[in-house]
Amino acid sequence: MQTQPLSTTRPYSRRDWQTGYRSLEQELDYAIEDVAGEIPPELEGTLFRNGPGRLELGGQRYRHPFDGDGMVCAIALRNGRAHFRNRFVRTEGFVAEQQAQKILYRGVFGTQKPGGVLSNAFDLRRKNIANTNVIYWGGKLLALWEAAEPYRLDPRTLETLGPDDLKGGLKPGEAFAAHPWVDPASELDGGEPCLVNFSISPGLSTRITVYELNPAGDVVRRYSHSVPGFAFIHDFVITPHYCIFFQNAVSFNPLPFVLGQKGAGECVQFHPEKPTQAVIISRRGDHEKRVISVNSGFVFHHVNAFEAGKTLVVDSISYDSLPTLEPGQDYREVDFDALAPGQLWRFRFDLASGSVAQQKLDERCVEFPVVHPDRVGRDYRYLFVGAAHEPTGNAPLQGVLKVDLQTGDRQLWSAAPYGYGSEPIFVPRPGATAEDDGWVLVLIYNAERQKSELVILDGRDLGRGAIATLRLGHHVPYGLHGSFTPEYFGDL
């Protein structure tokens, strides 16, 4: 695929991009034999990815891909070879709808049951779609969706084992969000790794509950705070001493949802004229909370955070506005030019004065950032992020951008004009000491082949191009989040 600047004025085709939004109904299990280049023999472990694998049912399309049923893919790597497997997460709702062969639950982002308003009014049941992230922690593989409990899968077969309450750490009805972070050396745990995650209970006020899990998967700390107003929070960041949440300036009018006219997500309105509230919660002692206002735009994802004396530095992907979801709108017909791009910003919170300074770090349209796992919550130099091909304007993600925060250097690997990207994952090289010494794994949809490919890049030099391209025999619908474990769960 093309990796150099293009001579055409537009490096993508919306029609090509649309073809990635197709269901993958088959559940597959095979060795990947079609490989261009060489898989690094020292790259060993399993890449897990999650996302909506089914986008219609019973002849009815879902209104938004975020309403699609979760499908986990695993690509296991060892000795220069690779194995692919995918399975749907068989939640209670998935099984019921599979048997009925029709939509039985309303989707958060606008999918309605057949039968119109009368069929949907006052039906407030929630279907766990388990479609947003997947992590391997404490010997368990967990599929995550932020509004419900995790679903546990067999890491080797991806068979669904059922809902998981984290050894009793989750109370009945509590959720476990889809964007956990791993503190690589928790001061509260003698330098052991610690997984940190949260849940929110929104309403007139919103309760934020933080969970901290040890390497065995036990919830060793949990603490909660309430904040005024409705909160729409997908991601957060951690440092050794703090959890930081951006409470975006949104409001929620539940009436159209209750009356069956709209999905819950369609009832959220962003107010760009109002500030975001940065909610900073101490991980120590009495878990003190403080709130600092910041004009951040709308933030889905953060890059990283770190402490610099009495200053908290938070790097995030910020949007000037949040696109509204309108009934009858087809998500595949998005006008990229009419939407604000996500861009890289830095926020510096002075904890002594309660003030904040902010700086845009790059103009390029980017999303799904990642850093070296050992630099989470620490000062860091490099980040990798899904990126548009062109340096300005809004567009689909087509490559990976490497940013050197120390020198300001940028490197872009692009799969344009036919490749469409996803969240990159950085895997450190075993024994490496340099922060960027490792591999970047990114699943690319190749619209020319109408199939997907796992591309392996050299984190030290994206300009080398693909070290290896693993060509799948099918497409994988555009996904959301994933993770890598050095544990090998393949059949080779």
TrEMBL record:
Positions of Fe cation binding: H179, H234, H301, H481
Signal peptide: none
UniProt key word Metal-binding: yes
Alphabetized UniProt keyword annotations: Iron, Metal-binding, Oxidoreductase
Cofactor(s) the record lists: Fe(2+)
Origin: domain of life: Bacteria
Molecular function as annotated in GO: carotenoid dioxygenase activity; metal ion binding
Entry similarity comment: Belongs to the carotenoid oxygenase family.
PANTHER family found in the cross-reference section: BETA-CAROTENE DIOXYGENASE, CAROTENOID 9,10(9',10')-CLEAVAGE DIOXYGENASE 1
The protein, known as: Apocarotenoid-15,15'-oxygenase
